[in-house]
Amino acid sequence: MAVVFESTTIDEIEAFLSETYTRVNLSGLNGVPTRTRIARTFLPGLTSDEFQLGADLTYRADPLDNYILCSLRSGGVEIPEYSAGPGDVLLLPPGERGLTGRLRHPRELVLMLDPTVLQRVAATALEGRRPAALSFHGHRPATTAARRQLRDAIDYVHTQTLTNPALFSEPLISTTITQFLAAMVLATVPNNTSTDPNTESRRDAHPATLRRAISYIEVNPHRDLTIADIATAAGVTNRAIQLAFRRHLDTTPLAYLRQVRLAQAHADLQAADPTQTTVTAIAAHWGFHHPGRFANQYRTAYGQSPSTTLNS
Known about the structure:
Layout: E1 2-7, H1 10-20, E2 24-27, E3 36-43, E4 46-53, E5 56-61, E6 67-79, E7 82-84, E8 89-92, E9 99-113, H2 115-126, H3 144-162, H4 171-188, H5 199-204, H6 207-219, H7 227-234, H8 238-249, H9 253-271, H10 279-285, H11 291-302, H12 306-311
Domain HTH araC/xylS-type: 211-312
Keywords: DNA-binding, Transcription, Transcription regulation
Organism: Kribbella pittospori
């Protein structure tokens, strides 16, 4: 679902921002009209806004309930201790402290992530050793390369997926996208998670572990599975299940899950009526949101295009 907000009055802009993010007070316009446009798209656990403010003004905001991820295209955003300009990425966490600063004609992508999604993805890296609360060390990626990676991920999520409403109805697509973005945030912005392997994980990465994991995946390919889910079903840590798949199959748990879903899509294409469905619809149902990549993977696995299978 998408919503577009446009206004030139500070009261309307302030009211929309307060309803969307947290209670916000704006000042500095002195009664001068300014054009503001926000185009919002919704996914479970994630919203994406194209935000454009035609003014230079100050703001005071209450504490946030969600993580806010800002990718600046032009203009600037100032928060305490940091100023962001074109090309920068900012992460604003929820918490007890409000924010004050300045908006300088910003044009940006603003993504809002549910904290429970980030915590769930973080649990994969924490091997079950979840901290009292996930915390980030600063507001931005650690390096220039990390900033570029996170910015590219935001662009990909927005331009390739959130602008395609046809994909919104597929739970596997929406949850995978949300988790992908959460994983990129955790990988690029310094935080209190850790992915160091340990001796116990290496010991648990044996064939019986692999068999339990494979059985679980093959019974549940339609579900929104994470590495943590697969590891729990196999009775081992996240690291152990990753090592088991790498050691015995030279792949990863999620790559194996994609193979199983590809096989399910193959079966559906063989059984489907081409007058009643499409390759894209079947691919999306099994979590493949990029038609070109799906076609390439399918051709590699089955020696023909998915459209040939559907129409044969």
